[in-house]
Structures are given as C-alpha cells and as structure tokens.
Amino acid sequence: MSATPHTVGAPGGAPAPASAPRRVGVPDWVRGVRPGVALAGLVVAFFVVAMIVPSLLTNQDPYAVNLEQTLQSPSWAHIMGTDQSGRDLYARIIYGARESLLIGLGATALGMGVAILLGTLAGLGNKWVDGIISRGVEVMFAFPILLLALLFVAVFGPSVTTEIVAVGLGTAPGYARMVRGQVLSVRDSGYVEAARALGHPYGQIVRRHIFPNAMRPLVVVMTLGVGQSIVWASGIAFLGLGVPPPSPEWGALLNAGRNYVTQAWWLEVMPGVAIVLFSLSLTTLGRHLQQRLEGGVNR
Amino acid sequence: MSKKAKKLPVLVQLFLLASALVALVVGLSACGGSSATGAAGGSTDGSSDVPGATATAVNVVGTEGATKPTGTPRSGGTIQYAHEMETPCLTGGWIQEAYIERQYADNLVSMAKGGKIVPWLATRWTTSKDHLTWTFTLKPGVKFTNGEALDAQAVVDNFYAWLDPETLNPTVSTYIGEYFKSAKAINPTTFQLVLSKPYAPLLPVISQGYFGILSPSTYKGGAEAVCNEPIGSGPFIVEKWTHGQNITFVRNDNYNSAPANALHQGPAYADKLIWSYVNDPTTRYGSLTTGQSNVIYDVPGPDWATAQQQYEVQQYITPGRPDTLDLNTINGPFKDKLVREAFAYGADRRAATESAFEGKTPYNGNGALSQTTPNFNRNLEDTWPYNPEKAEQLLDQAGWKKNSDGVREKDGEPLDILLIYGANSIITNEGATVLQDLQAQWKEVGFNVELKPLAFAELFAAEYTKPTSYDATIGYWTSPTAGVMLITWRPWDGKEPNAYNSPFYNDPHLIDLIEKGNASFTEAEKDKYYGEAQEIVTKQEVAVVGVYTQETTLAVEPNLKGVWLEASQGEPVFSDAYFEGQS
Amino acid sequence: MATYAEPTAGAAIGVKARRAPWAKRIAWRILGAIFVLWAAATFVFFVQQLLPGNQATLILNQQTGNQQTYTPEQLAPTEAKYGLDQPVLSQYRDYIKGLAHGDLGNSYTQFKPVTTIIAEQVGPTLVLTITALILAWIIALATIIFTSRRRKAVSSLGSGWEIFSAGLPYYWLGVILLVVFAIELRIFPVQGGTSLEGLVLPALTLAIPLGGFIGQVTRDEFEKVLDQPFVTSARARGMGDLAVRLKHVLRHSVLPAITLSGWALGALISGAVIVENVFARPGIGNMIVGAAEHRDVPLVSGVVMLVAFIYVISNILVDIAYAIVDPRLRG
Predict the structure, then answer these.
(1) Are residues C185 and C294 in the same domain?
(2) What does the DSSP assignment read for A151-164?
(3) Does C178 share its domain with C39?
(4) Which residue has the higher pLDDT, B64 or A134?
(5) What ipTM goes with this model?
(6) Min CA distance, B457 vs chain C (Å)?
C-alpha cells in the first residue's frame, strides 16, 4: 500500500552529513552520497539494465520449459531455483523487470500527467474552478486502486495497458492534491508577487516561475511513485487479474508461487524480495534526491 | 541540540532485515513437518516417481469400502469439510451443485463400485420389452424433511419440474430432454417413466446428484426456492447458507432412505456438517494440517505426496469426457487435419501432466472419454505419442514453413494458435501449468500458441463460443456413461449451437453410432458403437486430443472414518462418517 | 473548505483557515459529500455499461452452469426481470432514485437485495480495517517515541524499519505470515473466519506497512518539533524525556498523520481485498472480487457506493479530529 507519499516538502528525514573537505575533481553530487544511497543507486541501475538489456544479466531463457528440472531449490546452476515448469526463476525475475517497470513507469507517468493537469488548473484557477476540480479529485479518491483495477479489467480485459491505466488513475488524485498545494504555495510566494508587480504577463509568470518551482519537488514524488505503482500492479496480478501466462511479470510470479509456498518457498519469496528491494531503493534515492533539491537540511 | 550523526547506511540494515526474513522463512519451511519430505518435485530425476501416487485408479469407480468402519460408530460431532469453489445455487447443473445435492436429497437409484446400479428410493425396477417404459417400485414411508410424503407423484413432479423452463435443471435436460416422453404415478409406490426412444444409460444417468428428488413445494416456490431453499429427503438438512463462507447442514434424524451401497442404514452419525469454501489451495490444505478441517477437497498437487503419508487420501477419477484439447475443425489453421495431427504429436502431454500434477492426476490419451468410463476404448490411449520430428514433417507436408523466428508460415500467415480456457473456473492452476509446458514445446515445432485465460464472466457470457473465437480450447464434461458423447458431439448447425461441441465437428455418422450405443443393452454392442465413435473423433479426425482427467480427491484426517466418494460423479458422502475415539 | 492532506509547508500558507461559521461549513461539507457519492454512483454505473457480452446471457449461464448462447426469446424473461430491456438512461434514473431511498437493487447472482448481502459481509471488513488502523498507529507511535533522536543506531534502525515496512506489499507479507505463523508454527488459525485469533494475522498484514508509512510521516514532524524552543524549556523545567515526548511533542506532530488516516481508511479497503483473499476471510473485499468476476453489476455498484461512503465519512471525522487536536483550526 503506502500510496502517494506525503513526505515531500516535509523537511526532515536523515540529516545531511557534515561536509567533507573539497576534493579537486570530485563532482558535487558524488560528494554528498552516503554508502546506503550508493547501494540503492546500484540496485535501481541493476533493474533498469534488466529492463533494457536483460540478456546482460542472465543467459537463461525465462520461457524455456524443462520438465526434468521442476521445482529445484536454489543451486549454482539456478541461483534462485526453478519453478513448476522448470524455468529458471532468476531469469524470470530479470525479464519480468521489463514488464513490471514498464507498468510502474507508465502508471506513474499517467498519474502524474493527469495530476499536473488537474492540480495546476485548480491551483491557478478561481474559487469555482478550484472547487469543482477538487470535488472531482475527491471522487477519484473514493475509488481505491484495487476497485478501479477490478472494474477496468472486467471491462477491458487483463493487459499491460489496463494495469497502467488502473494504477495511474488510482494514484492520480493523491498527486493532484500535491500539485495543487505546490502551485498554490508558489502562486502566493514573494517572488511571484514581485514579478506581477513588475508587470510581467501572467502566462510568462506561469511558465517561468510557477510551473518549474511547483514541479521541482514532485520529481522526488515520482521516484517514490514508481515503486508504489509496481507494488500495486503486482497486487492486481496476484489476484489473477494480470497479464496472461507465461508472462514473468513479478505479480504473476507471486500469483503462481502462492501454490508452492510450502514446497518451494523460493517461488514466492524471491519475486517479493525483488519488488521490495526495488521499491526500497527507489524510496532511498527519492529521499536523497529530495534533500539535494532542497539544499540540505537546516536544523 | 541536535546531533549531526552519521547514520548507518539505511539500505545495509534493510538488507539485513530482508535476509533475516528470508532466513526465517527458509528455516521454518525446512523444519516444518508438512513440507519436509520433498519427495515430489525436489528431486533431479523428474517428478513422476512418487511412491504410491501413480494413477492406479483406472476402472476404480467410486471408493466405497475404502474406509470400512472399524468398531462401533459413535454419534455426534461436527464434520468440518473444506470445499473449493462456491456455486450460485444449492441445486442445479454444476457438478459442484450435484455434490451438495447429494447431502440433502436422495435419488431413485445409486451407482455402486464397478458401475453396478443398486436400489435407493426405488427398491425394484423393470423395463418393457421395447425398453421404452420403465417402472420403478418405491420404498414406502419415506418423507421429505418438511413432512411431505415422497411418493410416486412427487417423483413425477420432479421429472416435469426438471424440464420446465422456470425451474430447469440444464444438466438433466441435456441428458434426458430428447428421450423423455412422460411420467406417471400408477399408485403411491409405483412410478412409471415413458421414453420416446430406448436409452440404455438411463439408470447410471439418474444416479447422479442432479437427479435428486426434491419436495414438490420446493418447485412451487420457483427458481428462487430451488436455488436457495431446496428440501429433500436426504441425510442432512440445509440449515444456513452464508455466502462466501460455508453451508451449515444438520442431521436429518428421521432419515430412513439410504442407498443399498451405503455403509449403514439410518440417520447420519455426525450432528452437523459444515461445508466451507476455501478456494486457495495452500490455505485449504493448511486448514487440514492445522486441524481446522477434518476433510478437504482437491488435494493440491504439490502436497499430494505428503498428504498420502499423513492422511487418508481418496481419489476418484471422473468418467465422462476428460480434460481434452478441442481443435477448431471448421475455421483457422486446424481446418487442415495434417495440422491437427502435428499438434497432437508436437508436445508431450503425458510428461507435462505428470510433471504439473506431481503424479496426482493421470494422463488420458483418449480424447473422447476418460479412462474410468464404461466402454472406454483402451486402444486409443497411445494414438498420438510425443514425436516432434513427425510433427515437423507433417507441418512441412501441409505447406507450413519455419520462418526466421522459428514460427511456421504459410502464404505470409504465421501459425498462430489461440488457445482459450476458463481460468480457475474450469482449469486449475496445475492445468494452467500443463498448458504452459505444452506451449513451450509446441513453439519448438513451430506453433505460436497464445494462451488466453478467460475470466469467469467472459466464459459464461458465452462470448467465445463462435468458430471465430478460438483455434483451440480445453474442457471436460463429467458423466458416468459413454452416452455423454451425444452431448459433446451434437452437431453445431449455426442456428442452435451446441455449446459443448467445441471442435465444431459435425458428423451424422458419428451421431448415429452414439445413438446406437445409447440404444444398446449388451456390453458387446456398446463397446462396438461407442468404441468406434471414440476412434473417429480421437484417431481419425483428431478433433480432440486427450490430456488429463477430471477427478475428485479427498484428504481425510485419520480419526474420521466412513467418508467415501460415490461412483457416478465422485460426490462426497458424509452420512456414514463418524469420529473414532471421540471422548 | 477544510484543509486536507497538505503537509507541505508551502501549502499551509496557501490555504487560509476559514473563519466561516460552523453551520455553513458543515452544510458545505455535506453537500460536497453528496456530490462525491452521486459522482461515484454515476461513474460505476456507466463503466459497467461498457462491460462486453450480454448480461442476460451471463445471468442465465451462471445459474445453470452452461456456456451457451440464447435466442432473444429465451433471454426476454430474464431481461424483463432485471430491467435490462429498458433504455440505459431510464435504468440509470431508476438506479439513482433507488439509491436516494437506500435501495441498492437486487444481486444478479444471489436472489437477495444488495443491501442485505452487504450488511452480512461488511462487519468483518470494518473490524479488520479499523483494527489494522489502530494497530498501525500503535506500531508507528511506538517506533517513533522510542527511537526518535536517540543514539544513532537506534534512531536509524527505527527509521530504517519504517521505510522497509512501508514498502512491503500486502500480498507478499500476508502469504509469508500465513505460512510461517499459521501453517508452520500453528500459532494462529489458518481459516480465521470471524474469530479474534483469526483477526491477528490479517490485521497485522495491513497494519505493518501502514504503520511504517504513518511512522515516516510523523517522524519527520516529530523530530522537527523536538527541536522547538518550547520543548527545550520543558526539559529545562525538569520534565523527563519520555514525558516530554508524550505530552508535548506528540500532539503537535500527529496532525499530518491524522489527515492521512482518513485517506488510509479508504485505502485499507483496497488492502482488505487482498488480505481477505489471502486469509480466506469473509468480508466485502472478497465479495467484490467475486462480484466483479461474475459481473454482478448491482453488487459491484453497491460495494463501490459503500466504500465511497466510508471514505466520505472518514474524511469528515478526520476534519473533526484535526480541529480537536489543533486549536488553531477551530471555528
């Protein structure tokens, strides 16, 4: 669960480390990186590589059925064991990253897109526009993600697109509210007032001041959101509403692994670890990014 | 003052936590009793050498006598039974509904082990010389649980109600609709049934739970009463149905109409029977291992081996049409018989079945009938062994050439096969695994099979019943008689489609053979006609390709005795069950 | 318009606390709530009109176990019975009229009114979600109170745990808890039903991630407040650390999390769908999956309306709680 994270803009979290002495040649952004964050970055990079060039990370075919080797526990030949059709689980997780990440990115992009549209209009508009849009967002809030997913899958059938739309629309209201808040705060801020006093045209103000400043903190939210979208999409697949077999999408793996959990625990545990690890790494990176963008923390 | 402390790398801690979690699960599953043996699946020599689990159930029809009661049964106790899928109603055309109906209703006759028909509500029966008139003598003094008398008139009312559109039982009507002419009560204990043509399978057919005798007042209440509040004369009475959870049955203390093959006559031993719905296999089996349930339905494949060591496991291989691949003979690539043959040779259905079910469910090569059906044609079991070279040769011959992706092409069209199936409603998880295994093997010879699981609603909205809807599908039709072939091969004429003739294979000669079989009263004749019918569809036309059988499995805890599966449909029987050593 | 979850510092500036009278604000809130309910009902009604396939065929087939197509004459009685032969807009009108009277229609799969079915099943879900929310709060508060601003190891462990647990998927956690604690260790029953022991694992499954999430949000606030001058002065007056944390700091820092709780209750319903599935627990979560699977349109609509209603109510409650906790927002 833990959907749209509201930790953006709440200054806090880990305090910034004491500044290290400046070293020549070391770029700024490397200096401030703690080991934990570096690890998170590696994990994310790993899965991004898995998404783009899976064959770099494994030479096994995730679809290769081998009836002699079903339900093997982890070994050197198959580091995460095999599933009920003899397919290498590690390979399936790697190739599954593509679909899962695609859904996560797509859903976040869609959710953010809708949210920016609605939130900006509400934030910039007058009382009535704001009121109507905010009510609309409330209605969207009243539909938990899974209910939405159930409805969409029933209407449009299970597919990657359906999952992206369902999760995207389900997370949009949370983002929309955030965007609106950001836009409002920037709109009423000092430098915007100054710009208007100076007579700059409104459109230009929106473009040059309001929009960029409002959106900056949301970059962080998006990184956190991708992780959450993946978790939700996997939940949909877990209920059996996901992409048809033999897709190695992580949620589908969890759905299949459920039946073997007392006999072949790795089938259920490993894909879950992948999801948790990826989501966690994104969260860590996101929080780090948040601190960097806000220029560290003053206590 | 705040400390500008350097925190430990968060992620390192999280890795530790994650590893701890994994270690916990590993440790517990290694130490846990129910999964320790790993006899199935963990070995490197294939998963089919599981002791005691190979399918020896050929011709074992019904498992009565499997749990002969030892000692004097004691009354009392509540049987906790975890079933699987919940059905919309307590009566109806679903086999799961027949299972339920067996608990609260009685039939005219019962099918015993080996296919023999024994008395139940009917103590004797005769047929006229032309086999058109059947006269049943009913046991006197039997009452429905609401006090109404179960006499010949009540039976007559049932036959008409089953065929009446308002209270229709579709399975009943599919079996006897075209054979039924009239029913009459000669006197309160004599019931007469008149058919329009001879129907040899009549007695096995009416021994199934769908033909349970309900009180006439039930039918007067319309479809709603039939669905929710049916009243029978059986060993249990429906007390309450909590949707999504369970049915509560209580004992019928006046029960005096047990069938002749029951383990005892008279009321049930248990006070109550709780029929719970637990769809998830892990949870269902877990409820047995933790003692929450005394008996469960459908032992999961992964637990089959260990269940046999700890519990009393019963298996009933369902006769009728097995789980078989239907190939669309009038549209798409399978119009060409050579392609159908290649499909049959192209994947190892036997190995896939044995692997996915871990030895529980037997392979059934005969596509028309399950191996426990009377008049099963044994010669067809090995008609299409796994032979990829032959498959490739046939495809080449049919003009399909492999392209650079390994998929075959002809006239620019790829050999795409759309295989649809009812996920969870008809095909279980293990079945889905079988299909995935086969899909990979078919890929190697050049078929590009797309698996499309259909959700419940998609399936039952009948959106996928046209010749343009699929190239292949898979499904079953349970029946105690080979006469089921009339149901599954009734011609599809475009106007009134027969939903069960999934290959759309219309053949008047085939129907003629089956009808002759239905009108045969000697085994030799039945073998001849039914046998030839099976050969046509399985061998000559390859309209169906066999994979595995349907079945009923139960795992019973050791101190619950007397649970058995009846022979016509594998309906679980609890009226003879009792707890041993109860304090 | 009351402030919703806007913990962003900037937003607090942007949205001014209204000084309008109580009654007017309440009236607006109720109007807003009715709008949300109406919009939800309309959306779910029309979405389900898009469902492919013939509804009457499905109804007939489900009850009989057939998979066949029917002629229009065969379908006519069923269509008449369920009002499916009416034009869409008049079906919609009847539906909304029924809603206004509290009539949610009759289920297509069970011969019962939707309100009866929901009433039978909603209890366990409410018990589950409320218990989960309470547990989540306990977990979050305990973690924060005891691990905020302590030795670095303790503090980062607490923070790390929150981040980790917040990211745990329900289904994964649920399956693992089920297998470890119910099936292997046998501490809890496998089929929980509605018993108290059967409530523990499902509630924990929901509570742990939510607790982590609430913890994260509150921790930030908590640590901020711990640095405020008035806390220092309270300590200078000799107040014990724990007392300071409980009496002063907590009250100020829970505001964002309270707002979250309102939203969380609605989101917990989503989690309940999965948790009830994993633990085979009765409730509307399980029910709606079945209803959607069987395309039982009235039942699906009914559950959606119920969830929207819960969401709206909990938001109103949150506003009230907010006002109680933060005197600045009153009246």
Answers:
(1) yes
(2) HHHHHH-SSHHHHH
(3) no
(4) A134
(5) 0.80
(6) 5
Task: Determine which of B87, B245, B488 to mutate to test the interface with C (most C C-beta atoms within 10 Å).
Answer: B245
Of residues C116 and A30, the one with the higher pLDDT is C116
Beta strands in C33-134 (DSSP E): none
Q: Name all chains with 3 or more CB-CB pairs below 8 Å to chain C.
A: A, B
- The pLDDT mean for chain A works out to 81
Q: Is the dihedral of CA C210, C211, C214, C216 positive or negative?
A: negative
CATH of the domain at C134: 1.10.3720.10
Domain annotation covers residue A62 = no
- Rounded to two decimals, the pTM is 0.84
Query: Is B560 in contact with B579 (CB distance < 8 Å)?
Result: yes
Interface of B with A in 374-433 (CB under 8 A): 423-424, 429, 432-433
Average pLDDT, whole number, for chain B? Answer: 86
The shortest C-alpha distance from B435 to chain A (Å) reads: 10
Boundaries of domain holding A217: 91-298
The separation between the first and the last C-alpha atoms of chain C, rounded to the nearest angstrom, is 12
**Cβ separation of C67 and B88 shorter than 8 Å?**
no
Res C2: pLDDT: 33
At CA B228, angle to CA B225 and CA B232, rounded to 5?
75
Task: Find, in chain A, the residue whose alpha carbon is nearest to that of C273.
Answer: A146
Q: Does C170 lie in the same domain as C71?
A: no
Q: What is the pLDDT of residues C168-203, one digit of tens each?
A: 888 889 988 998 898 888 888 887 777 888 899 999
Q: Evaluate if residue B399 carries a pLDDT over 90.
A: yes
Q: What dihedral angle (degrees, nearest 10) is formed by the CA atoms of C35, C38, C43, C45?
A: 180
Residue C153 lies in a domain: yes
A34 lies in some domain:
no
Judged by a CB distance cut-off of 8 A, whether residue C295 touches chain B is yes
pLDDT of residue B165: 84
CB C197 within 8 Å of CB C188: yes
* C246, C139: one domain: yes
Question: In the block, which residue shows the tokens 């599933």?
Answer: A83
Residue given tokens 């059988």 in the structure block: B549
Q: Is B461 on the interface with C (CB under 8 A)?
A: yes
pLDDT digits (tens, 9 = 90+) for C247-277: 766 766 666 667 677 667 767 888 888 888 8
Number of domains in chain C: 2
Start-to-end C-alpha separation, chain B: 69
* Count of A-C CB contacts under 8 Å: 199
Domain span at C126: 118-330
pLDDT, tens digit (0-9, with 9 covering 90-100), for B106-139: 999 999 988 899 999 999 999 999 999 999 999 9
Cβ contacts (< 8 Å) between C163 and chain B: which residues?
10, 14
B positions 499-538 inside 8 Å of C (CB): 499
Distance of alpha carbon B83 from alpha carbon B99, whole angstroms? 10
On the 0-12 / 13-18 / 19+ scale of CB atoms within 10 A, C330 is exposed
Rounded CA-CA distance A289/C292 in Å is 41
Q: Read off the pLDDT of residues C231-250 as tens digits, 9 standing for 90 and up.
A: 777 777 777 777 777 776 67
Question: Which residues of chain C are within 8 Å of residue A188 when distances are taken between CB atoms?
Answer: 13-14
Count how many pairs of residues, chain A against chain B, have C-beta atoms within 8 Å.
Answer: 133
Using the Cβ of C53 and the Cβ atoms of chain B, whether some distance falls under 8 Å is answered with yes
Q: What is the mean pLDDT of residues B433-461?
A: 92
Q: Which residues of B touch A256 (CB under 8 A)?
A: 429
Query: Which pair of tokens denotes residue B225?
Result: 């009463």
Say how many domains are in chain A.
Answer: 1
C185 touches chain A (CB under 8 A): no
A13 and chain C: CB distance < 8 Å anywhere? yes
Average pLDDT of the segment spanning A133-149 = 84
In a domain, A1, yes or no: no
Residue among B180, B181, B183 at smallest CA distance from B154: B183
Distance from CA of B283 to the nearest CA of A (A): 9
